[in-house]
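Quick note —
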Amino acid sequence: MEEVGGRPAVALAAVQTARGPLRVGSCGWLQRVVADRPAFFHGLASCLRGWHAQQMTMLILARDEHFAWLLGEAPPPEPLREAPGGVEQRRILRWLRAVSARLGAAGLLGSWLIVEEDEVVGLCGFKGPPDGAGSAEIGYGIAATRRRYGHATEAVRLLCEEVGRLGGVTALRAETAINNPPSQRVLEHNGFLQVGARHDPEDGDLILWSRPLVGAGEDPGSPGADVANRR
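Predicted structure written out below.
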């Protein structure tokens, strides 16, 4: 391998994204930065992954036809493909399908597909209707083969924007396992604060999060909104 300044040079610097390497460059100065300052490059790579997710991730309102497709009961209702290895376990998909149906019957939105370039990489949405104070709990999940690329952070951001725009919900809640730092960072990056803790017989110790919604009634065409409620 060629050496730069007495250290092995990186022939081609690239950042791995969910869809393959995002090329950064192969010039000499960047090779020296990578060789001499690996921590800097890893930080840069993280920033670029987040930028890539922000540019490419969108939400599509999940219909029953989508759940039928993800469960293998029907073809996709539109030109979509599922992330390799599947998006979620079947029992969770069935539960989400039932929750979405109940919310839909009550005139409420339920779940959204998290999509990158027509590939479904995850799901997010409500776990139930808002409580008497207007607070609703959300959940989110990313396919195992598409994690660590910023999709969850961007999806929650879009979800907060869409729910705030539609109105009717004053705050969002979420729960994360205490041993799940990546999910905790998703909420922290989106303005959620820790408000308590509880123990669940199945899920163990959980951290409780909440975020008040601002900007209700915001112009649907505001910058950053990239939610498709395709019916």
